[in-house]
Amino acid sequence: MAQRKRTWSVATVLVLALVAMLGWWLWRWVSGPATTFSEPSKVLYIRTGAGLDEVIDSLEAIGAIEHAAGFRWLSERKNYTTRVRPGRYRIEKGMSLNALVNRLRAGEQEPVRVTFANIAYVHELAGKLGRVLEPDSLAFLQAFMDPDLQREVGLNEETIISLFIPDTYEFWWTTKPEQFIKRMKREREAFWDQERVQKAKEHGLSPTEVATLASIVQSETVQMGDAPRIARVYLNRLRIGMPLQADPTLKFALGLRDIQRVLNADKEVDSDYNTYKHTGLPPGPITMPEPRFIDAVLDAPRHDFLYFCARADLSGFSDFSKTYEQHLVYAKRYQKALNERGIRR
After folding, report:
1. Which residues of 312-324 are buried (b: 16+ CB within 10 A; e: fewer)?
2. In the chain, which end has fewer C-beta atoms inside a 10 angstrom radius, N or C?
3. What would the pLDDT profile of 82-103 be if each residue is shown by its tens digit?
4. Are residues 207 and 333 in the same domain?
5. How far, in Å, are 128, 159, 243, 295, 323 from residue 218 at the CA level?
6. What is the DSSP letter of 301?
7. Are residues 100 and 131 in the same domain?
């Protein structure tokens, strides 16, 4: 009898030890490192509509899990199999299986930082967004050119580019084009605060018209110090009904944004953007104006100059004139400098 009790005691101890070992192993398996990659972290993309099998394939492809069966088993117990959330997820080296499932189940995405500037056409912005967010460039372009969406933000095909204020923003990878537009509308409204709107009114312009003029100023100079003075030249011309005669608008109309020299023949182009033929502002911005150029228009210092011309030293600075005769002197110097350098276009 005593011998039997000792046998049962030993068996019980062995069973408990085995259970403890299994429990410890299970705890280590669930809570210990699951990743197999050596980099500090990797990014996992889960597309909209993906199921558990596709998630497992993606995890294996980046080395985030070693045993698919184990991930599936834990996912089933945590009800992740029916709660797959699309997105862009950061997976750190050494992350446990339990932490991984919890992150994916909770939809804890890492945002995408998107910076845009120096963009002239909405299709360029659509292309940039299509490379970093889930929807493709065509989806973004279709949304930008949707008349109904344009009306919702108070713009049209010519002015829609003024919706976007160049900066760095954070978006979820899954952001849809319509969501992107709504976000940009909020950002634009925040930028055009009461102070800026009042300054625009003092110039007799709407925010969209200020953006249009700012886009011209931005295209005229690389020297920020000259931008406010150039802005005032154009404001002076608008005030007296003088054509803007802005070369960048001709380049836009011709689709020749990168040329250095505008020819007299270019001034005959049949376009609403030809500010040599048409007075007032063109139909919309010729590029996406940066905030600093918008402020250069709003804060343009008062002066009496009606003309400006790039300096002959090609420094990017401009010479300003009150009379056309003085302007011609500067213009001839600049043209001579271009000729000497063989710049014909």
Report:
1. beeeeebbbbeee
2. N
3. 899 999 999 999 899 999 999 9
4. yes
5. 21, 16, 18, 11, 24
6. P
7. no
| Residues 319/309, Cβ–Cβ less than 8 Å | yes
- Non-local (6+) Cβ contacts of 345 within 8 A are 259, 260, 261, 263
Cβ atoms of 320 and 307 closer than 8 Å: yes
**DSSP letter for each residue of 174-237:** T--HHHHHHHHHHHHHHHS-HHHHHHHHHTT--HHHHHHHHHHHHHH-S-GGGHHHHHHHHHHH
Q: Do residues 117 and 69 both lie within one domain?
A: no
CB 137 within 8 A of CB 147: no
Partnered with residue 209 across adjacent β-strands are none
pLDDT digits 0-9 by tens, 105-138: 999 999 999 999 889 899 999 999 999 999 999 9
Which pair of tokens denotes residue 288?
A: 């996406």
Angstrom distance (rounded) from CA 124 to CA 122: 5
- The CATH code of the domain that includes 51 is 3.30.1490.480
CA 327 to CA 333: how far, in whole Å?
Answer: 10
pLDDT for position 18: 47
Among 201, 196, 202, 203, residue whose Cα is nearest residue 165 = 196
- Round to whole Å and give the CA distance between 288 and 128: 14
Over range 223-234, report the average pLDDT: 97
The alpha-carbon radius of gyration of the chain (Å, integer) is 31
pLDDT at 14: 46
User: What is the per-residue pLDDT for 23?
Assistant: 40
